[in-house]
Structure formats: C-alpha cells, structure tokens
Amino acid sequence: MTRTVPVRVAAAVGGAALLVAATGCGASAGDDKHPDHRSFALHGRTLVVDSDDSALEIVASPSAKAGSVEVTRWFQASVVAGKDPRVTWAMKGDRLVLRLTCSGFVADCAVRHRIEVPRGVSVQVRDGDGSVRARGFRDTLGIRTADGSVHVTESTGPLEVHTGDGSVRAEVASARVRISSGDGSVRLRLGVVPDLVDTRSGDGSVTVALPRAAYRVTAQSRDGAVDVSVPRDPASPHVVGARTRDGKVTVRTAN
C-alpha cells in the first residue's frame, strides 16, 4: 500500500520562501489525525524491520495475535516543486520494509510507525534515520540506526543496540547487553545481575547502574573522569565493560 501527499507548487522562489517561513516548525507525524493501519502475516519466529527514514515504536505484546504483525503509520508532508511524497510498506519474507520518498525544492516530511509483534518473536531493527523505542521483549532484540536515539524498556531478552549518531537509554532486566553509540551518551539501568554488559561511546558519557553484586569491571575514558562504585572482583562471572573516548564513565549500584 502506497500513500501520497499532493505537492504544493510555488509560483516563484519568493513563494517557496514564504512557504518555508509559514511552516518553519517542520512537519510532525503526530499531526496526522487519520493514521493508516495494516496487518501483515508473519510465518516464522524472526522479524526484520527495514526502515530508511522513520521514527519507530516497536512493542512485543502478550495480546498480539500469533503469526501477525500489526502496523500503524502516521504521515505528514509538505513539498514545493517536487514529486508527490509517498510512504510504502511491504512484507518480504520475514522482512518488513518501510520506505519514505520525499524530495523537492522545499521538502518537509515526517513518518512514524508503531509495530506490534506477538511474544516469542525475535526482532532485528535497521533504521537509516529516525528514533527507535522498544518495549516488552523477552526474546532477542537488536537495533541498529545510523542517526537517531534509542530507548528500550520492559525487556528481559538479549539486547544489542548500535547508533551512529544519537543517545541510547535502556531500563531492562536482560542478562546480556551490548550497547554502542558513535556520538551520544549511553545510559543503562539493569534490573537483574547480568552475565555480560558491554557499553561504548565514541563521544559521550557512559552510565551503567547495576544490582548489588560483585563484578569484573573494565571502565575507561580517554578524556573524562571514571567512577566505579560497585564491588569489584577480577574472578567474577559477571562481566561489565564501560568505555568512551570523550566523556565521563560511571558504573554504580542502582538505587
């Protein structure tokens, strides 16, 4: 299914400038009062979300129907002297493909998807440009975005997150967590004693809050303070890494 928005044409460059001034706040997908909804069949226990330019909310729900993925889409756009902007969605095998086309002399488009999956499904997310929020996962969750923040909550399965440019927050109860950001802060709060934590940032602070236990900790910053206040044991089976090139590193006991 494809959804398009008609182009708004300016008579001259001055008209385009006026349009930019009038819409300077930018398009917001939340302004779409009539979102689209569609159900996609899922035949396996793995889903790949392949998005080029969308904010994503992904929820693993106990009430979701087995063998089905429910998607809601909000879309707003304004384009001057270009092609009609459009959004498409399609299921190709186990891959949900979400695409946005938005170009013109002045182009301002915003799209957001809410994706609901049943419990028992492992999810891998690939997003080119957009924030990602995820919650409710008991199975493996992997998130990779080139440019956007990530926030994960209420999850207990293995977690792996990478963003090229954006902050990462996670409040989870996972035994194995890997988080990295090329440019942004990392904040992890764990509700269970983990087996493995690996957190990294190229440019940003790293904060890890852990349940009370003894940990084998590696904490490093090339340009910033390092504060480790959890009990340390070099022989502990609970391994925690927190590293950044530029910023403060904190490993502490969760309050």
TrEMBL record:
Family annotation (Pfam families): DUF4097
Signal peptide residue numbers: 1-29
Highest taxon of the lineage: Bacteria
PROSITE patterns named in the record: PROKAR_LIPOPROTEIN
Keyword Signal belongs to the record: yes
Keyword Protein biosynthesis attached: no
Domain DUF4097: 121-253
Name recorded for this polypeptide: Lipoprotein
Natural source organism: Streptomyces brasiliensis
